[in-house]
Write a structure and sequence with these properties.
With 421 residues, this protein is of the alpha+beta class. The protein folds into two domains: 248 residues, 2-Layer Sandwich (BirA Bifunctional Protein, domain 2), CATH 3.30.930.10; 88 residues, Rossmann fold. The strands form three sheets. The protein has an eight-stranded mixed β-sheet with strand order 1-5-6-11-10-9-7-8, with helices on both faces. α1 packs antiparallel against α5 and α5 runs parallel beside α9. The longest helix is centred in the middle third of the chain and has 18 residues. The model has no long low-confidence stretch (mean pLDDT 95). Bound molecules: histidyl-adenosine monophosphate. The site of histidyl-adenosine monophosphate has 26 residues, from β6, β10, β11 and α11. Histidyl-adenosine monophosphate binds next to β6, β10, β11 and α11.
Length: 421
């Protein structure tokens, strides 16, 4: 029986890790620069949390969740995103009792049963950033700034920021009515999916990618004209901050996002050239969600960015991460006595914090040198029978192939800078 990784999942092999390490480290640094604290929430939650939080008629809940009955017959779901879980934690762990707003971030895997393609997986990874407990548009801006700065830190340039306001429970129903009345005369011109959306989730009519539907959505009434004073003022202030910062962005009237929890600000970041799945980041304000999952009414905003899509964009732009650390030294030996001395030396080097590699397979010196070279070790410490007898170690510097004989007692000190003497 040959086993395969499940469709839509993949292994992150050692040679791919440099990107992952770089992106996650840069992300952590940027989040901490802005004063965000790390939180981790469970990989699975009660199914009802996502049904209620993300929304029963969303694609995620209708078609994409990994849901199972556990051994107590309770329905559980692998998290398709982090926001609902973080809001659950905020309510359950009474994080509203802490100084507000609370700035949080997390990094980890999420799961959606989607049709796999480039940049779209069934197990993928998100950097998720949330601010809970503030309604101020300056916080919306701050959250967007965190995203911008993460992309800057990893060196990505060609991104486009898309912003919109999706209104609130006071003004959105009026807009939906306007939208439905407008579409009522035009149902023959839209696709089957859109006709279904017309009945269930009319806002999603606006982001259909099919040509005819898309052309029609361009003509459809815009939400900007239906926003209540509060939403209009909020969006106006956010735009004025964005203008002042001189960050390029576009107001995209058709961007509604695929979750029911959004209110007011929504935004996405798009990258050219990574295929149909070009959203590197998506987010928005969700002022009603915490109340909906059992906490006090609390305004909040956040975003998530797919790590795979960040890496795809980096590759597309030719950005290479710094190399992962290589061993400083490689310990080589010849003969049984020397092997014992080499084992002890390697232990001493590692205790001193020096990255040390060795091949304990009793291979020829040539084979050991080849391995040291392959690993990119800075120098090789050679112990043969003569070295054991004389109480010395031969130190070979790989960069220029020079050799020196160093007393055994001095060798750790001699290589502790990562360089041979
Ligand atoms: P989302 O737009 O569903 O939003 O996902 C955010 C990002 O996750 C996407 O822009 C994309 O980069 C990545 N992503 C999503 N699905 C996949 C997939 N199947 N394969 C690879 N990457 C994927 C959310 O998840 C919201 N919870 C964001 C948020 C946080 N809103 C407020 N706070």
């Amino acid at each position: 029986m040959n086993y395969r990784a499940p469709r839509g999942t993949y292994d992150i092999l050692p040679e791919d890790q440099a990107y992952w390490r770089f992106v996650t480290e840069q992300t952590r640094q940027v989040c901490e620069l802005y004063g965000y604290e790390q939180i981790d929430v469970p990989v699975f939650e009660q199914t009802a949390l996502f049904e209620r939080g993300v929304g029963e008629t969303t694609d995620i809940v209708e078609k994409e969740m990994y849901t199972f009955l556990d051994r107590s017959d309770e329905s559980m779901t692998l998290r398709p995103e982090f926001t609902a879980g973080i809001c659950r934690a905020y309510a359950e762990r009474k994080l509203h009792g802490r100084p507000q707003p609370l700035r949080l971030y997390t990094i980890g895997p999420a799961f959606r049963y989607e049709r796999p393609q480039a940049g779209r997986y069934r197990q993928f990874h998100q950097v998720d950033v949330e601010v809970l407990g503030s309604q101020d548009p300056a916080i919306d801006l701050e959250v967007m700034q965190v995203a911008w700065q993460i992309y800057e830190a990893v060196g990505i340039k060609g991104l486009s920021f898309q912003v919109n306001s999706t209104g609130c429970p006071a003004c959105r129903p009026g807009y939906i009515q306007t939208l439905k009345s407008w579409y009522e005369q035009r149902l023959d011109g839209i696709c089957g999916d859109c006709r279904r959306r017309y009945g269930q989730n009319p806002l999603r009519l606006l982001d259909c990618k099919k040509e005819a539907c898309s052309a029609m959505a361009d003509e459809a009434p815009r939400i900007a004209k239906s926003l209540c004073n509060d939403c209009d003022d909020h969006f106006g202030r956010l735009r004025s901050y964005l203008d002042a910062l001189d960050r390029p962005y576009e107001v995209n009237h058709r961007m509604v996002r695929g979750f029911d929890y959004y209110t007011k600000t929504v935004f996405e970041v798009w990258a050219e050239g990574i295929g149909a799945q070009n959203a590197v980041c998506g987010g928005g304000r969700y002022d009603g969600l915490i109340g909906m999952v059992g906490g006090p009414e609390t305004p909040a905003i956040g975003f998530a960015s797919g790590i795979e899509r960040i890496i795809l964009t980096m590759k597309q732009e030719g950005i290479e991460p710094p190399d992962t650390p290589k061993p400083s030294v490689f310990v080589a030996y010849l003969g049984a006595e020397a092997k014992k001395a080499a084992v002890l030396l390697a232990q001493e080097l590692r205790t001193a914090g020096i990255r040390t590699a060795a091949l304990w397979e009793d291979r020829s010196l040539k084979a050991q040198m080849k391995q040291a070279d392959r690993l990119g070790a800075g120098c090789v410490l050679i112990i043969g029978e003569d070295e054991v007898k004389d109480g010395v170690v031969t130190v070979r510097r790989m960069a220029d192939s020079t050799q020196a004989t160093v007393p055994r007692a001095d060798v750790v000190e001699a290589v502790s800078g990562g360089d041979a003497p």
